[in-house]
Amino acid sequence: MLKIDAGMLSIGAKADITLIDPDLEWEVDASKFESLSRNTPFDGWKLKGRAVRTIVGGSSVFVIPSGVEESLAIQKTK
């Protein structure tokens, strides 16, 4: 339909997927954004549900380890 060359979920394929923890509660902290822009109307909001891992081409590129203090949790992997 969109003719986008994207990954697929199948045995042996390199996955492109984001894993979500729908019960994870966290607070938006604009000062911890990776982006240089800190503009957000959500700074300080307490939210429920969050992406905890992103896999691109079969490799993790973003991980929030389970059981880790939120202030220390965000890790970018290479």
Question: How are the SSEs ordered, and which strands pair?
Answer:
Layout: E1 17-27, E2 46-56, E3 59-63, H1 70-73, E4 75-76
Antiparallel strand pairs: 1-2, 2-3, 3-4
Helix content: under 10%
In whole angstroms, how far apart are the ends? 31 Å
Sketch the major β-sheet.
Answer: 4 strands, antiparallel
Number of helices: 1
* Gross geometry: extended
The amount of beta strand, in percent, is 35-45%
Structural class: mainly beta
Give, in order, the helices and strands.
EEEHE
Tally of DSSP β-strands: 4
Low-confidence region ranges = 71-78
Rg over C-alpha atoms, rounded to the nearest angstrom: 15 Å
Describe the protein's architecture and organization.
The structure is a single chain. Helix content is 5%, strand content 37%. The protein contains one helix and four strands. A hairpin with a 2-residue loop joins strand 2 and strand 3. The C terminus is likely disordered.
Which keywords apply here?
78 residues; mainly beta; 4-stranded antiparallel beta sheet; 1 helix; 4 strands; extended; disordered C terminus
Q: Quick gist of this model?
A:
With 78 residues, the protein is mostly beta strands. It contains one helix and four strands; from the N terminus they run βββαβ. 5% of the residues lie in helices and 37% in strands.
